[in-house]
Amino acid sequence: MRRATIFVLFAGGVVFAVALIGLLFFSWRPATLRIAVGPPGSDDVKVVQDIAQGFSRERHYVRLQVVVTASAAESVAAIGRHEVDLAVVRADLNLPPDALSVAIFRKNLVVLWLPNGGGSKSQKKESNITKVANLSGRKVGVIGKTPANVTLLKIILAESGVPQDKVDVVQFGTDEVGEAFRNSKADAFMAVGPIDSKITADAIGATTKANSSPTFIPIDAAEIVARKHPVYESAEIAAGALGANPTRPDDDVTTIGVNHLIVARKALSELTVTAFTKQLFAIRHSLQTEFPGVANIQVPDTDKAAAIPAHPGAAAYIDGNERTFLDRYGDFMWFGLMILSGLASGGAWLRSYIRRDERAHNTQLRNRLVDMIVAVRESGSLTELDLMQKEADGILRDTLNCFEDGAVAEDTLSAFNIALDQFHNAVADRKAWLADSLSSRRRSSAV
Fold first, then answer.
1. Does the pLDDT value for residue 262 go beyond 70?
2. SS3 for 168?
3. What is the tens place of the pLDDT at every residue in 346-389?
4. Helix H or strand E encompassing 159
5. Are 195 and 237 found together in one domain?
6. pLDDT at 325 over 60
7. How far apart (Å, rounded) are the C-alpha atoms in residues 61 and 94?
8. Of 303, 323, 343, which residue constitutes the final position of a domain?
9. How far apart are CA 376 and CA 75, in angstroms?
10. CA triplet 385, 391, 392: central angle to 5 degrees?
11. Could you list the residue range(s) of the whole structural domain that residue 380 is in?
12. 110 has pLDDT over 90
């Protein structure tokens, strides 16, 4: 039975050790995440590919598998269908509810300007366009084919008091701006991109005479737009941010910003997202010399009231609340120790239960030993005392066997030793008394 108990405890310990080793293995093995980004050939794709190569080169915990999509909208659809774990998307797209922000990939600004030296036949009237409200009755060319830019323009017009049907909106591809300007297809142009966007700079250059500056239109309703639509924010285009010769713009211009984000599925492990976020901001510094676009990556808003909440794993790293190994698995380890303790207690109880008959038998033997003490003191025969001594030896042997098997506790053995000592003392006293009686009888007979 003792061997069985030891086996149960050993088996339980082995199971716990295997479970712990398995947990460590699955916790520390590299995780490969699929990230959607598009369109093909864009700077966004190049930046993500550089990040993926950096992760792989430095043997990080998280590896990236880049999935190139046709557009940011397709990336949204991919993460919504759970085909990818991460995606680079624009914040004002129709994101699925389980997409949570991990990082700001880049900040986009709306640039709204009037061309000079050409354009529409109504060019002579353009000196009167000083704000968005003056665009009523005009044609606005939106750079880029994404519907999100048109939606944003309509929001700007609505909050500026311009009926949407009063403005003719035309979309151009990034390579069609020059032709659109030469063919007088727009009175004003709008582009959405990072402040250092080559697309925006080329579009402004294509609609501007050499050594001159276009007229930039401030968006005075930026604060109202930001309050009503939390995915947008009021921002400033700093003087000279779009060109230094000539200065473009020549003064700060109020505008609207919208972020491109790296988002993750809510179901993605908090540990994995924390590791990814840590790696992302660690590698950003080493890659920005090779690819300056990486420097645009920033931490997201971790406020719970944010328009797109941060993933708990990203928030833990950003806010300095990252959980340690013991924080994550301490409960599991304590639970395992409790199970082992329970197995030990259960084994001891089972062993005691199975030995109950043996304990009862040993109790009878101990009682027999006590009864024999009384019998010894009344015995009148040395032969009888020798037989009881022999029986006591047998009781001692059985008791020691029960103790080794665990049927007899240590305190019970101590009580038995006391009874055994009393028995031996009684036998010794009785034998001495019988010897004296015999000697007295012999002396009496001799007299």
1. yes
2. strand
3. 666 666 665 666 767 778 887 888 888 888 888 888 888 888 88
4. helix 147-159
5. yes
6. no
7. 31
8. 323
9. 98
10. 90
11. 357-446
12. yes
What does the pLDDT read at residue 103?
Answer: 97
First-to-final CA distance of the chain: 66
178 pLDDT exceeds 60? yes
CA distance 137 to 328: 61
> Which residues, 6 or more positions from 74, have their beta carbon under 8 angstroms from its beta carbon?
36, 38
**What is the structure's pLDDT at 139?**
92
pLDDT tens profile 401-442: 877 776 667 777 788 888 888 888 988 888 888 888 877 777
Integer-rounded Cα radius of gyration of the chain = 45
Cβ–Cβ < 8 Å for 36, 74: yes
3-state secondary structure 115-130: CCCCCCHHHHHHHHCC
Same domain, 261 and 367: no
Domain of 169, CATH number, reads 3.40.190.10
- Inside any domain, residue 99: yes
pLDDT at 121: 45
Based on the fold, state whether residues 370 and 266 are members of the same structural domain.
Answer: no
Instruction: Count up the domains in the chain and report the number.
Output: 2
Distance of alpha carbon 314 from alpha carbon 276, whole angstroms: 8
**Cis check: omega of the bond before 30, within 30 degrees of 0:** no
Based on the fold, state whether residues 318 and 371 are members of the same structural domain: no
Query: Residues with Cβ < 8 Å from 407, sequence gap 6 or more?
Result: 352, 355, 358, 359, 362
